């Protein structure tokens, strides 16, 4: 099966599974799991933050990040298409009583700072209190420029806002820019790192920040049901991923660029390609037939008028060649 719906579908390799089975474990709620402690220490080191906390999911990590920055009745400014606004079931509002203030992102994935400034509420009892700017890196595969992050960091310092980065695919940004994680993380108060997308682990995310922030996050993690026990089995996968699966993300980027060129050559309208994500237009009358055609050939795509294709470590260039051939056969039966 060739599965290009998302990089969340990746499965642990044999070497990663070996590392998981050999993991030393303890009770992480008591902070006694040495492998979890090692993973958190490594995430803190790589990000340049004082501390990190391991979560079962990225949604929970983002929720806790918001809960730590904002109180009931506060507000965070966020992109209209950002994951922690649109795709996480409204958790900040429902569970945290935190009001989102979404704004449209620019074509490059950034939130224009003049629009952010216009969205900040006055200090008036009629309004929610604006406390946080939340950015997403990468955003639909687009890497936020370091120059923009530096400007956003200075902007939030001047306006007494915190800055959070939803870094679900932050290492794709690291690899695409040829930098280290610390070079990006220096421009935020907190960031999340997802381990179960391009890095290939079965589960898990990390939240990084200063020590007081992470202590607060630990309490919220427990309250929201994320306190795990012998979680070292899962943390071992994260350690393996950070050691072995970061540099290879470039293969995914190269494969996405190659695929975009090949699909364009057979007449598919490619809208954009950034890092490991490719977006193509599919005519309305082709959506359902193409979905069935691909599935019959053991290819999984989430076909829609604008179809996202995501490359990852479980899809080879040879398999992408099969995809192109099958698409061409669909267009030219």
Automatic annotation (TrEMBL):
Domain Aromatic amino acid beta-eliminating lyase/threonine aldolase: 3-282
GO MF annotations, alphabetized: lyase activity
Family stated for the protein in its record: Belongs to the threonine aldolase family.
Keyword list, A-Z: Lyase, Pyridoxal phosphate
Record note on quaternary structure: Homotetramer.
Keyword Lyase set for record: yes
Protein name per UniProt: Low-specificity L-threonine aldolase
UniProt entry tagged with the keyword Transmembrane: no
SUPFAM superfamilies: PLP-dependent transferases
Top EC class for this record: lyase
E.C. number(s) listed in UniProt: 4.1.2.48
Listed cofactors: pyridoxal 5'-phosphate
NCBIfam families (alphabetical): GntG_guanitoxin (NF041359), PRK10534.1 (NF007825)
């Amino acid at each position: 099966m060739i599965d290009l719906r998302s990089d969340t579908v990746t499965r642990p390799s044999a070497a990663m599974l070996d590392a998981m089975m050999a993991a030393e474990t303890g009770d992480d709620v008591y902070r006694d799991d040495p492998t979890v402690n090692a993973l958190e220490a490594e995430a803190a080191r790589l990000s340049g933050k004082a501390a990190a906390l391991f979560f079962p999911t990225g949604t929970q990590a983002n929720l806790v990040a918001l809960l730590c920055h904002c109180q009931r009745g506060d507000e965070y400014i966020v992109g209209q298409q950002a994951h922690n606004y649109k795709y996480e079931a409204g958790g900040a509002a429902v569970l945290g009583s935190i009001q989102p203030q979404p704004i449209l992102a620019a074509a490059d994935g950034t939130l224009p700072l003049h629009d952010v400034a216009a969205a900040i509420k006055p200090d008036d009892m009629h309004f929610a209190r604006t406390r946080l700017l939340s950015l997403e890196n990468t955003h639909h595969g687009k890497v936020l420029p370091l120059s923009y992050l530096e400007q956003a960091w200075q902007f939030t310092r001047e306006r007494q806002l915190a800055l959070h980065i939803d870094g679900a695919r932050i290492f794709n940004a690291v690899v695409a820019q040829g930098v280290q994680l610390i070079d990006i993380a220096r421009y935020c108060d907190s960031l999340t790192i997802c381990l179960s997308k391009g890095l290939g682990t079965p589960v898990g995310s990390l939240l990084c920040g200063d020590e007081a922030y992470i202590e607060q996050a630990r309490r919220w993690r427990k309250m929201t049901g994320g306190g795990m026990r012998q979680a070292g089995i899962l943390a071992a996968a994260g350690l393996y991923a950070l050691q072995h699966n970061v540099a290879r993300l470039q293969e995914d980027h190269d494969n996405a660029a190659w695929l975009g060129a090949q699909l364009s050559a057979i007449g598919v309208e490619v809208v954009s390609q950034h890092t490991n994500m490719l977006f193509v237009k599919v005519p309305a009358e082709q959506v359902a037939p193409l979905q069935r055609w691909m599935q019959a050939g053991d290819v999984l795509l989430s076909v829609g008028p604008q179809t996202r294709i995501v490359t990852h470590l479980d899809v080879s260039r040879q398999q992408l060649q099969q995809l192109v051939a099958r698409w061409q056969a669909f267009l030219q039966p």
